[in-house]
Write a sequence for this structure.
């Protein structure tokens, strides 16, 4: 009977690769158990694959012990011990797996599937699909943050701190009278009384909770607490923008098209708004694109990039802030708000 010689280094390499595969499969199974989209059959298939790889790993580990106890660097494969095989896995297949791994013409980092036969002819046409149970997959545990810049509209507002749940805030109107001409020593005429407009306000509470186990914080490869805080910060901005944009959409709308878009903006700035205002333009992505492609009669773009300003863009000297289309309407619709916030 023909026997092959196998070295300790070759068996040790087999153990390292299979051990890494077992760890990877265990992680996959744990993730799949929490995923409602993964079926029971798919989970069982991963478990079966894991069990086969465990046998490969344990067999190599036992054979490493045999090398250590005999203090040799190589021996015939027929002299190597086998671990007790699990149900459905042929013991001879395990022995052949170790032997084929060492003597096959492929890369030493590959292992023949233990579920396959011991016939060396099965190596013909071996692909990564065949070797998949023994090829480790890299898992990156530090997630990259999605590139999705969002303007926080609350930074454009004038904020007033309050100490109660509701109330009114008086706004005094600008005096619209002038001093009359009065003769010397004549009685002073009465002036107009201050006029106030009351603004009613009410505090609304927005909140939520997310339970985090202490084990997940301790065992995770990243700072879970900081990740959750970042997510809550995103939710805070989303809440602000949703509430603010719903109010901005309620103002009277002025229609315009690409032919008179600049004229419409100029009219609103010069006539529609009080000269004391400090207006800004909040534009949806589609409107922002329309503004960005506007040209004058000489073919020069009139939309400017201001690298020193908070908005990075200006139109007619007015800062322009870009938000997602769905905050002002539907995707593809061009809307904008212009005013003092």
């Amino acid at each position: 009977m023909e026997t092959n010689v196998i070295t300790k280094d070759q068996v040790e390499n087999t153990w390292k690769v299979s051990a890494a595969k077992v760890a990877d499969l265990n992680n996959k199974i744990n993730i799949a158990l929490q995923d409602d989209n993964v079926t029971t059959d798919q989970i069982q298939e991963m478990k079966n694959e894991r069990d086969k790889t465990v046998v490969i790993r344990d067999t190599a580990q036992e054979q490493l012990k045999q090398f250590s106890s005999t203090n040799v660097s190589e021996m015939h494969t027929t002299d190597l011990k086998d671990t007790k095989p699990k149900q459905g896995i042929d013991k001879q297949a395990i022995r052949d797996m170790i032997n084929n791994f060492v003597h096959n013409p492929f890369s030493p980092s590959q292992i023949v599937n233990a579920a396959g036969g011991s016939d060396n002819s099965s190596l013909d046409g071996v692909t990564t699909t065949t070797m998949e149970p023994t090829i480790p997959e890299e898992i990156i545990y530090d997630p990259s943050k999605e590139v999705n810049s969002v303007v926080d509209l609350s930074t454009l507002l004038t904020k007033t701190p309050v100490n109660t749940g509701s109330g009114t805030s008086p706004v005094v109107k600008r005096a619209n009278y002038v001093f009359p001409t009065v003769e010397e020593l004549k009685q002073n005429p009465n002036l107009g009384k201050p006029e106030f407009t009351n603004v009613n306000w009410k505090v609304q509470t927005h909140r939520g909770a997310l339970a985090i186990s202490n084990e997940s914080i301790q065992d995770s490869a990243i700072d879970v607490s900081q990740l959750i805080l970042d997510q809550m910060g995103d939710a805070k901005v989303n809440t602000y923008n949703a509430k603010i944009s719903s109010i901005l959409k309620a103002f009277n709308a002025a229609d315009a098209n690409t032919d008179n878009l600049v004229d419409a903006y100029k009219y609103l700035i010069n006539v529609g708004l009080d000269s004391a205002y400090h207006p800004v333009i909040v534009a949806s992505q589609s409107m922002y694109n329309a503004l960005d492609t506007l040209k004058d009669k000489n073919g020069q773009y009139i939309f400017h990039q201001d690298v020193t300003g908070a908005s990075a863009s200006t139109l007619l000297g007015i800062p322009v802030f870009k938000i997602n289309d769905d905050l002002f309407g539907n995707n593809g619709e061009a809307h904008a708000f212009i005013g003092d916030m």
Q: What stands out?
A: The longest helix spans residues 40-70.
